[in-house]
Design brief:
The protein is mostly helical and about 220 residues long. The chain contains 6 helices and 2 strands. Strands 1-2 form a two-stranded antiparallel ribbon. Helix 1 runs antiparallel to helix 2. The longest helix is centred in the C-terminal third of the chain and has 54 residues. It is a multi-pass membrane protein.
Amino acid sequence: MGCCTGRCSLVCLCALQLLSALERQIFDFLGFQWAPILGNFLHIIVVILGLFGTIQYRPRYIMVYTVWTALWVTWNVFIICFYLEVGGLSKDTDLMTFNISVHRSWWREHGPGCVRRVLPPSAHDMMDDYTYVSVTGCVVDFQYLEVIHSAVQILLSLVGFVYACYVISISMEEEDTFDFIGGLDAHSHYRDHVELKPVKPVEISNDIDSEMRLLDLS
């Protein structure tokens, strides 16, 4: 009963993680954030693997999901530190785009209440993409929206880690119990089979008696 409840909870949690990861992937694509895009892609694959393992009762797949949740929490903690500029990190660097472009988070210009104005470029700033954009009136700054997204991912991953460990432990206990009972049944069946095996009577051939009679007559 406990295993079924844990598996159902883990299935629902994996489905919720998939939805949240897909939502985040869409906005990271819009912002050309290549590092988060790659991370989200791997996360979606592993969550699908964990969902399949939970439904099909494959503990090994759930173990892979459990290990990944720990790595996913670490990655999202790094993202939070990046946008809050902790430890010398700067949200204005091109780290999230692998230094390929100068794009920033999509929420920087499209957050709640943000008013985006395109300014005329100056001659000495022709190569700066964001010199021409002015964003004002944002209710929540983009870095805090990214932090909220990462915090949600961390929360879901921690809960998923707990449920996954619970399902794995219950599954291992059930497998051990099944093997123990199955071993006893096999031993009992073998013993009963040996004890109840009928003994085949030995038939004595009459050829020897016939030969003895012939010798006596001679």
